[in-house]
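User: structure tokens for this one?
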Amino acid sequence: MALYEDLKAVNIIPQVARFMPNHAYKMVYNKESNDHQMVVDMYPSVAQPWIHVKKCDDRLCQYWYDVLFSAYKLLPIGCTGCWKVCVKLQTLKQLMAVYKLQQTQPVTACKCGMDQRPWNDCLYGAYWYQPLAGGLETARKNWAKINKLVHKHVDPKLTVILKRGCTEMELMAGPSDQWHIPQDQYAYEKLLAATYKPVRDLDPQPEQIQVNIMQQWIEWAMKNGDKTYLDYVDKPLCRPLVYYHKSAHSPKDFPVQAADLSYEKVEPKSSIEVM
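Assistant:
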């Protein structure tokens, strides 16, 4: 069997995905501190397009993005020191090559997958997260290594870039080289952290979820006209349709049958007798 059929044979996630939350916040009472705290239950996310080959151990991405950025509309302080190497990919074949590269030579924490965001002009993407303690200098050194590896093992024509923070944050807050954190935000983030008690999600991504995601990569490729998906299936995922514009069919093969549009109006009759 080809890769797609192998994945589909062991993929147990689609049937139960709707019952699997990504995470849940709840307010609980802390006896030691005698106050209430917002606690997050971390669940492996099934509603994501990325396979996390190597997770970050120096970030609070879920808290920074989901809580501070998405909920409170802040540009998180922690994200201003985030540097990541990125490459936009246009074919499933390129994605699979990058996935193999990240497995064998990750360099830093990394992920790859299909890019479903409407503001990105690519079907797939790959990311390498640079150590927060290294700053721009270390990030540039690692960019040079990753750039060389991608051009050697994936495609020499690909453009590998180094960027700051998430794209969504730059779209909201403007060019990343002009980011400014208001002085009062430092105290506000401390207030939120005291309530939320953020934790890092360091558990490896479950293999069952990675299987489900990779199956979706192949289906995403087919849906978006990426013919390289055919290298990973036994047969096309969509049966070819019958076309008639230049076929050998004769009009006599399909006699015209006028539709009957004269419907008799029938008054509904009640079976209930009124006494």
